[in-house]
Amino acid sequence: MSLDRVKTTVLDEARARAAKQLQEAGREAEQILADGRAHDERSAGDALRDARLRLERETIRELERIQHDNRLQILSAKNKGIDEVFRRVDDKLKAMPDGEYLALIGEWLGGLPADAGGVLRVNPKDVAKFSAGLETLNQKRSGKGRFTEVAADPKVANGAVVDGPDYNIDCTIDRRLNALRETSAGDLARVLFGA
Q1: Is 33 helix (H, G, I), strand (E, B) or coil?
Q2: What is the pLDDT of residue 189?
């Protein structure tokens, strides 16, 4: 559902609720007037004023609730749009050819501190390609910063996790996309939906 359609639907519902409330308030006011005539003009005026105040308060509360619901629906629609962008990026990254995939993960691993090395835990389907590329991944690393072996870990869906002596560093696509989403969701929303 488009953002404009969400807005139109919410506003139409708000108008219908407001019209219904106004009708009910009108009937209530007429009843109060009729009751007031039976008693005395002064108490009828007070009752009518109280009914109007009550109606105004209820109308304000209902409009605030509708506006809040509208903001939530718009935010939900925007989040779905942003989710779709990241889903497509995720699909493209996971469908990369082996060489490009290994180069991308290698770039992330290359950005680690020089002494951050150890075992590379990867998905079982990726063990062969990471094992074949281990020498390339270690070209610019030395000493403690070298990757010593590649181990299969079904918990790692994509990318790699570096297991050092007392640390592990997550270099998976999922973690990178989550971090990117946290830092760029506002900018992406402005690009997709305007200010």
Answers
A1: helix
A2: 62
Handedness of CA 133, 135, 140, 145 (dihedral sign): positive
Is 98 within 8 Å of 123 (Cβ atoms)? no
Indicate the residue type of 166.
D
Q: Hey, which residues does 161 pair with through a beta bridge?
A: 121, 170
**Cα–Cα distance, 161 to 170 (Å, whole number):** 5
**pLDDT, tens digit only, all 195 positions of the chain:** 566 776 677 667 767 776 777 777 678 767 776 766 666 666 667 777 887 888 888 888 888 888 887 777 877 777 787 778 778 888 888 788 988 988 888 898 888 988 899 999 999 999 999 999 889 888 888 888 899 999 999 999 899 999 998 998 999 988 988 888 787 766 666 666 665
SS3 of residue 114 by DSSP: coil
Cα four-point dihedral sign 175, 178, 182, 184: positive
User: Where do the H-state alpha helices sit in 39-168?
Assistant: 41-94, 98-110, 127-132, 134-137
Q: CA-to-CA distance for 10 and 84, rounded, in angstroms?
A: 23
**pTM given for the model:** 0.56
The residue with tokens 């006011």 is: 29
